[in-house]
Specification:
Elements: H1 5-19, E1 23-31, E2 34-41, E3 44-53, E4 56-60, E5 73-74, E6 84-89, E7 95-100, E8 104-109, E9 116-121, E10 124-128, H2 152-157, H3 162-165, H4 170-179, H5 187-202, E11 207-212, E12 215-219, E13 225-230, H6 233-283, H7 288-297, E14 308-313, E15 318-323, H8 330-374, H9 378-387, H10 393-399, E16 402-407, E17 410-415, H11 418-428, E18 434-438, E19 446-448, H12 458-470, E20 480-486, E21 490-491, E22 502-503, E23 507-511
Helix pairs in contact: 6-8, 6-9, 7-8
């Protein structure tokens, strides 16, 4: 309600008594959408601070104001040194004008996010504060009054539509009428309520900063929770401005900090849930070591070159089907399973450690959210902002040319496109990393990062090869040949199209194209 016609009726009257006859000594801006006007009469000074930000426009009247030495610019310089002759409030309008000697005027058009201050000479617009609204220069001061016949007969003629009769009541009054269910009352009673309310708006008992529907408002009516109460409109609206600015900053920053942490909390919860499910799936099916034991115990029953065999599982006393690599002997298949068992054990340990770490992070995030909810002053909020800086990591990750996967503690990078393939291979891959690509077809470059000079486990190489096959034209094949070579044997001669390289030395392995990173172990 701070930009309401009824408020400006009171404000204009007070400004008339405070600055009429005063000289405008300063008019400047030192931050975007904010104008400071300084008046002086004898030895008294009076300041108007017009904050006309799109998200919040409001006037305030600080007792004193210190101008900065830099980032400050004088505006409306033709008005400096001139004395105020009168204040004009326009009827049923959220506008008032400060008239100066020699036919100079400043119009305060307080229309929410389109608020502006317009300078006039001889009633002609000559200067704008916010140039983003060039049409304001055409506003005619003589056309701003809006006389409205606001009587009982007109109210009944409009069938109780008070908004046509009192368009200046504003949102707060509308919410108040909704709270008392005005429209459900007889028209006679409605008019009586409206008449009493309008009388209170024109002759308020005080000027209030209130909390209504969880929002801070300036009000001429004593409704909601009273936060501040002043006897003058100048003091009341100034108190509202500082209270709103402070509380709005706290509320806005608490919301931003909470949103950032709630996202982290949800990510941690989802990670823990998926990881526990993955862990449970692995633990509830026979381990690779058990499958290897069953193969070794039934070596003589396994035909050569078979892709799958059904054997008796002496661990569960049931038959079990075991997939095999047909080009390997039963003993080699068992050796592969024992090796997988070893890698699986390492991966499970890492998975359990990751879950524990995420649980600790989740608890820490919950503690921070509780601390934010409890913060009630600017000092506490600024401390929290310092402790929880905005993270740019997600934005950085969006710019990298690859998708990133983890397996058994190793990192696998997959190029996103032809140009990204070049960037991945030539800028991100080191000479001893493994480079993989589906053979003889287009597809993503894949880089398996070396880990502290450790040898690459065959199981991990196969997973990287499966990724290379999956992100290629061989995605739908049952088996795909994949080139595997250290990155040092990959080069890009000048003139080759994006994504194309020359490989000096290579090995080839056969794998099944598979998106294993979205499947259970």
């Amino acid at each position: 309600m701070h930009n309401n016609y009824y408020v400006f009726r009171q404000l204009s009257s007070e400004l008339e008594s405070k600055i009429r006859g005063s000289e405008l000594l300063a008019c400047f801006s030192q931050s975007r959408d904010e104008l400071i006007l300084g008046f002086s009469q004898i030895e008294e000074e009076f300041y108007i601070k017009a904050s006309l930000k799109p998200e919040f426009s409001c006037l305030s009247f600080p007792n004193q104001f210190a101008r900065t030495k830099s980032n400050s610019i004088d505006l409306f310089t033709d008005f400096i040194g001139k004395r105020v002759s009168r204040i004009q409030q326009f009827e049923n309008e959220r506008c008032f004008a400060i008239h100066f000697e020699e036919d100079w005027s400043l119009l305060f058009k307080m229309h929410g996010n389109r608020s502006n201050i317009i300078g006039y000479n001889s009633f002609k617009g000559v200067e704008l504060f916010r140039n983003s609204f060039p049409q304001d220069i055409e506003l005619n001061l003589n056309d701003l009054d809006r006389p409205i016949d606001q009587n009982k007969e007109a109210f009944f003629e409009y069938d109780g539509n008070y908004q046509k009769l009192f368009p200046t009541f504003g949102k707060l009054i509308k919410q108040y009428f909704q709270s008392i269910k005005l429209e459900e009352k007889p028209l006679e009673e409605q008019w009586e309520i409206i008449s009493i309310l309008e009388s209170g708006l024109k002759n308020p008992d005080g000027y209030y900063t209130i909390l209504w529907n969880d929002e801070i408002h300036f009000s001429l009516l004593k409704i909601g929770e009273i936060l501040k109460e002043e006897e003058s409109c100048v003091e009341g609206i100034t108190q509202f401005y500082y209270t709103y600015s402070k509380e709005n900053f706290i509320r806005k920053e608490k919301k931003r900090l909470s949103k950032q942490l709630e996202k982290q909390r949800n990510q941690a919860i989802n990670y823990i849930k998926k990881s526990n499910q993955k862990l449970e799936d692995v633990l509830n099916k026979p381990g690779y070591n058990q499958l290897a034991d069953i193969l070794m115990a039934n070596m003589h029953q396994i035909p050569p070159h078979t892709k799958e065999v059904e054997l008796f599982n002496f661990y569960t006393n049931e038959n079990i089907k075991i997939p095999l690599k047909s080009h390997l002997s039963p003993q080699k298949n068992a050796e592969n399973l024992y090796r997988k068992s070893k890698n699986q054990k390492i991966e499970l340990e890492q998975l359990e450690a990751s879950i524990k770490q995420k649980e600790n992070e989740l608890q820490e995030t919950e503690n921070k959210l509780e601390e934010i909810a409890a913060a009630e002053d600017i000092k506490s909020i600024k401390k929290l902002i310092k402790q929880n800086p905005v993270k740019e990591r997600a934005q950085v990750e969006l710019k990298v040319p690859y998708k990133k996967f983890e397996y058994a503690g190793f990192t696998i990078l997959v190029g996103k496109g032809a140009r990204e393939n070049d960037e991945l291979t030539l800028k991100y891959a080191k000479k001893n990393d493994l480079w993989l690509h589906a053979k003889d077809v287009t597809g993503s470059h894949v880089v398996l990062k070396q880990q502290s000079s450790k040898p690459f486990p065959q199981e991990v190489v196969e997973k990287a090869a499966q990724a290379a096959a999956f992100y290629s034209k061989r995605k739908s094949d049952s088996l795909s040949p994949v080139i595997v070579t250290p990155k040092k044997y990959v080069r890009k001669p000048k003139g080759l199209p994006p994504g194309m390289v020359h490989v000096d030395k290579e090995d080839t392995i056969l794998v099944k194209p598979e998106a294993w990173w979205i499947s259970p172990l």
